[in-house]
From TrEMBL:
The UniProt record lists the keyword Isomerase: yes
Record EC number: 5.3.1.6
Record key words, sorted: Isomerase
The protein, known as: Ribose-5-phosphate isomerase A
Record SUPFAM superfamilies: D-ribose-5-phosphate isomerase (RpiA), lid domain, NagB/RpiA/CoA transferase-like
Gene name of the encoded protein: rpiA
Top-level taxon of origin: Bacteria
Enzyme class, spelled out: isomerase
Organism lineage string: Bacteria, Bacillati, Bacillota, Bacilli, Bacillales
Originating organism: Paenibacillus lutimineralis
Pathway per the UniProt entry: Carbohydrate degradation; pentose phosphate pathway; D-ribose 5-phosphate from D-ribulose 5-phosphate (non-oxidative stage): step 1/1
Length: 224
């Protein structure tokens, strides 16, 4: 058992028969999906929506029944990882590039459970580079605007020497803010920029955080 596995497995216990569940993305969400898959094999009856092509493949591997958004009005539960979690349960997400689908799923869930190993818990967001998803068309303009407004190091994400492309066909710029003193304000500012599709700040969205430790312990933090 490692810290990510402890958090993922613990969160999977919230899943009950009949639920519609959002499946997160990343190395911590992997364990939640694995555990949910094991429970499905034992008879648990749920339906799920995946937040990335990778998680969809994983769900299929574990025979977790998948549905389309058109078939449901909302989700009962979503479980997903985070890159940083601050003292107010605001998050940075999108290290794996799945922030847009993740946010859509999280805000449409009755309960959003964040799973994180203890290293993700921070006093303030900003040490982890904030992922900002931007449209490919004239992306240099949105990128330039971000640089001019915030005057912090920002780089276009690449993979194998090419610009990284999200599951939605967009690009990602990663911004090093250092300390984000007001995540809510920054979140609204970024959303208002033309060319920006979404960003990785999740403010006032998480209901529960499950923190995992190397010895297999977990700590559950509920929104006040
Ligand atoms: O785009 C990726 C997601 O936001 C992940 O949930 C986040 O990056 C955390 O990933 P991991 O659990 O692999 O650290």
């Amino acid at each position: 058992m490692n810290a990510k596995q402890a958090a993922g497995y613990r969160a999977a216990e919230w899943v009950e028969d009949g639920m519609i569940v959002g499946l997160g993305t990343g190395s911590t969400a992997y364990y939640a999906i694995e555990k949910i898959g094991q429970r499905v094999a034992q008879g648990l009856k749920i339906k799920a929506i995946a937040t990335s092509n990778a998680s969809e493949e994983l769900a299929k591997k574990y025979n977790i029944p998948l549905i389309r958004a058109a078939e449901v009005e909302h989700l009962d539960l979503a479980i997903d990882g985070a890159d940083e979690v601050d003292a107010n349960m605001a998050l940075t997400k999108g290290g794996g590039g799945a922030l847009l689908r993740e946010k859509l799923v999280a805000i449409n869930s009755e309960r959003f459970i964040v799973i994180a190993d203890h290293s993700k818990m921070v006093p303030h967001l900003g040490n982890f580079k904030l992922p900002i998803e931007i449209v490919p068309f004239c992306y240099e303009w949105a990128f330039g605007q971000l640089q001019r407004i915030y005057n912090v190091p920002i780089e276009m994400r690449t993979r194998d020497g090419e610009l990284y492309i999200t599951d939605n066909g967009n690009y990602i710029a990663d911004a090093s803010f250092g300390v984000i003193s007001d995540p809510g304000k920054l979140s609204h500012e970024l959303k208002a920029m033309t060319g920006v599709v979404e960003h990785g700040l999740f403010v006032d969205i998480a209901h529960t955080v499950v923190v995992g430790y190397e010895d297999g312990r977990t700590e559950v933090i509920e929104k006040k």
